[in-house]
Specification:
alpha/beta; 10 strands; single chain; 370 residues; four-stranded mixed beta sheet
């Protein structure tokens, strides 16, 4: 059944927010919906290069099966029944990611490109466009995850180094602080004596606790009780030594509070992201969701080249320490309903509604809730 009439009861396709994506031939919408045209008796993907149809003759479909059920034929130009170019590219990159994760020694860029059947330059551009990370950055993140895992399991530093694919101790130690946020020995001891500065500010959403390491902001927590937020911070960073911020640090907290009130302005502060390679891919994809729009877990999974990993995407959202800066509030369930939120479902709804309202006020802006 066509879903055109399920979105605010529009009278024509032009009243549906998906129509703008058809008009702009938005390749990122391929696989999210299909549309059929009554006059030509064909169905298409959103990026179809054919001449734009009259919206009065268009109906949208949430699945390929719904489009096929109309009895219309598949468009010969955009081939909507086949995997989209974006899906094919995502599959190539997902395969490269699996190769990186399964290899004891990180594969070279030339090998990754050759296995994908692409030139080095084209593979590099494609990988970065889909994951948000250059291949070298992804490999470094994967190495860092292996090092952290090995040290957390009690491996000796040298053993963890070689298991992560480092063949040179000099190269390893040159990168160790950036990977771990501290020396390998301290990390192996559970991060003992790591210092985190923190302070609490107030926003319309409640108390906002901000904590920073020497690398950048490591946590933004929101709640009703400042004391509970501090306990939450200690639970998340059990072995860190917490130091109350001074006047200068409180100015930084004020900047973060201003960002919480108006996320569309951006937070121009360094972040200390601590996660697995997969989590980093998810968090980068979340930061690419524009303020005023939402995406489903399945859509985020497809955007990072892991279309079957919706649950893992949800897990990465739950592991997020940086409220609003990593905008997991913009991710909703596959049926469009709000899902859980670490800092309260009412705050999530407030953030989504506030961002959508401000997006509508911007001249020429469109709010698209996917």
């Amino acid at each position: 059944m066509s879903s055109t009439m399920n979105r605010g009861n529009p009278t024509t396709a032009a009243d549906d927010p998906r129509w703008a994506r058809v008009v702009s031939r938005d390749h990122s919408a391929d696989g999210q919906f299909w549309y059929s045209v009554a006059t030509t008796k064909v169905y298409c993907r959103p990026s179809c290069p054919s001449r734009t149809a009259n919206p009065r003759n268009v109906r949208f479909h949430d699945t390929l099966q719904e489009a096929q059920a109309t009895g219309y034929r598949a468009c010969k130009r955009c081939r909507p029944q086949a995997a989209s170019p974006g899906a094919q590219a995502a599959a190539l990159v997902a395969g490269a990611c699996r190769l990186i994760e399964q290899s004891e020694t990180p594969p070279s860029l030339a090998k990754l490109a050759a296995d994908s059947g692409l030139s080095v330059s084209r593979f590099h551009r494609l990988f970065k466009a889909i994951t948000g990370l250059a291949p070298g950055q992804y490999i470094a993140a994967r190495r860092a995850a292996r090092v952290r895992s090995g040290l957390a399991k009690g491996r000796r530093v040298t053993q963890a180094m070689y298991e992560a694919g480092f063949n040179s101790s000099g190269r390893f130690y040159a990168q160790a602080r950036d990977m771990l946020g501290m020396t390998p020995g301290r990390y192996r001891a559970g991060g003992l004596d790591e210092e985190l500065r923190f302070a609490v500010g107030q926003s319309s959403l409640g108390s906002v606790l901000v904590a920073s390491s020497t690398k950048g902001v490591v946590a933004i927590l929101i709640g009703d009780d400042a004391g509970q937020l501090l306990r939450d911070l200690q639970d998340r960073f059990r072995n860190a030594r917490l130091i109350g911020g001074d006047k200068a640090y409180e100015k930084l907290v004020a900047r973060v509070v201003g960002f919480v009130e108006a996320p569309q302005l951006g937070l121009h502060l360094p972040l200390d992201l601590r996660g697995t390679a997969f989590q980093l891919r998810v968090w980068r994809a979340l930061r690419a969701i524009p303020a005023g729009t939402t995406a489903t877990y399945a859509q985020v999974a497809r955007r990072i080249g892991a279309p079957t990993a919706s649950r893992a995407v949800a897990g990465a959202c739950a592991a997020n320490h940086l409220a609003v800066a990593i905008p997991c509030h913009r991710v909703v369930r596959n049926d469009g309903a709000d899902s859980g939120y670490a800092w309260g479902i009412e705050r999530k709804r407030s953030l989504i509604d506030r961002e959508a309202a401000k997006a509508r006020k911007r001249p020429g802006a469109r709010t698209v809730r996917e």
